[in-house]
Amino acid sequence: MVIAVIMVNVQPGREKDFYLSVRDMRGVRDVIHVFGEFDFVVIVETKDLAELNDTVDCIRGLDGVTKTQTVIGAEI
What we know:
CATH architecture: 2-Layer Sandwich
CATH class: Alpha Beta
Low-confidence stretches: none
Radius of gyration: 12 Å
Number of strands: 4
Helix content: 25-40%
Structural class: alpha+beta
Largest sheet: 4 strands, antiparallel
């Protein structure tokens, strides 16, 4: 299992469209609208890195997405 946090910026006015597109996406556990450097934090849980990569690619491909940054969780 891979858990990741994807921070996302979207074009102004596209926030609701982004939220509605991502919330039911496979592997997405939570979508949080935030204020600051990024517009959204997306928590993703996938079976492996390949599936995570597919999810990130899907998010990056959505209309209005201008930037993403992904942080992958690690076991201690």
